[in-house]
Amino acid sequence: MWPSSSAHTIRVILDTKDYAKYPFLREAVESIRETGLTLEDLERFDAVDDAKEKIKSVITRGEYPSIDDYQNEVPAFLTCIVILSEIGDSALSERFAVAFSKKVSENLKEEEKEERIEIAFHIASSVLGWSFDVDEKGTLIRLRYKDYLSGVPEYTGEWKLVNRLLDKGYVEVRKESFLRLIETGVKKYVLRLIEQTKVDEARIPPKLYSAVEEIASIWSKQREELLTYARNASKGKREDLFPPCIRAIIQDISAGKNLPHSARFALASFLLSVGFSVDEVLEVFKLSPDYREDIARYQVEHIAGMRGSRTKYLPYKCDNMRSYGLCRWRCENIRHPLQFFFKAARGRAPRVTELS
Ligand code: SF4
């Protein structure tokens, strides 16, 4: 049933439109490299301006806008990576990587069925370095278990290994799940790119340097505003910015109630995601009756991605919050507690109905 080789040969021909949609592909980067583009050349191209617009859109709207022409898109994407690596702020890099990987997912969804999975296979094998086999019908994929783990969006429900068929170190997934794994895989790949990119400061052209400064200043202003919102919200001053599920957990903790593990995880991952530091999260947890600094710090640092697998955990989605009994509300058009916060921070707080 399974072919013996795990190497995958792409069965579609990539063209320059694909390079614009997937600017991180080796073929796309090579096509630009062949033109001999150097860091200094970026001044003569629109790459710096395009990259600034992309990162600004990520900061303000959480969206990565693509450019249709690959000759502009690929240099602009690479310039974003350079700017982000120069700024070196992990929260900004994370925000960029999430927005970019979502865009890749959207682009994949728009592909014809056959092309979609072939491009996904190509990304998995040639960019992410994953090892997998595809069954003869092309519907089931057997993915090396460590690659599966590097792509799971969350360690809950269907994604838990115990809920998957594991055979000789390989995990079986359907095509749809494979595409979702690709999104997280691309996100982590972009984060690695940013982390590993090192540019000789002396070679940075003035225009690129001023872009780094401009973006760093926009980001720190926005972050400071969000932090102020978040801190005030946690003290009950601007409670409307936190979704009711998170407010309820904070109320329980303030009332001295013992929280279940799922509630602690939801609260810590939410606060870290909106910009709290580990110490600031611990300040909130100190209200807990069984608070132990050593245990709490270990757990919060783990959620923040500073220990173990180095994965920064995102809060549960609304569906998962409900299944853990942490949500008894309906927030209009909201599927994730973070979505509530960012909308509310922009003055567009969603309508909330309490479910009976
Ligand atoms: S719908 Fe989502 S954001 Fe709203 S309370 Fe429930 S879990 Fe929280």
Automatic annotation (TrEMBL):
SUPFAM superfamilies given in the database record: PriB N-terminal domain-like (SSF140914)
The entry's keywords: 4Fe-4S, DNA replication, Iron, Iron-sulfur, Metal-binding, Nucleotidyltransferase, Primosome, Transferase
Keyword Nucleotidyltransferase: yes
Domain of life: Archaea
Pfam families (UniProt xref): DNA_primase_lrg
Positions of [4Fe-4S] cluster binding: C245, C318, C327, C331
One GO BP annotation of this record: DNA replication initiation
Tagged with keyword Oxidoreductase: no
InterPro entries attached to this UniProt entry: DNA_primase_C, DNA_primase_lsu_euk/arc, DNA_primase_lsu_PriL
Gene Ontology CC terms: primosome complex
Cofactor note: Binds 1 [4Fe-4S] cluster.
Required co-factors: [4Fe-4S] cluster
GO molecular function terms listed in the Swiss-Prot or TrEMBL record: 4 iron, 4 sulfur cluster binding; DNA-directed RNA polymerase activity; metal ion binding
PANTHER family: DNA PRIMASE LARGE SUBUNIT
Family: Belongs to the eukaryotic-type primase large subunit family.
Name of the protein this chain belongs to: DNA primase large subunit PriL
Species name: Thermofilum pendens (strain DSM 2475 / Hrk 5)
Gene name of this polypeptide: priL
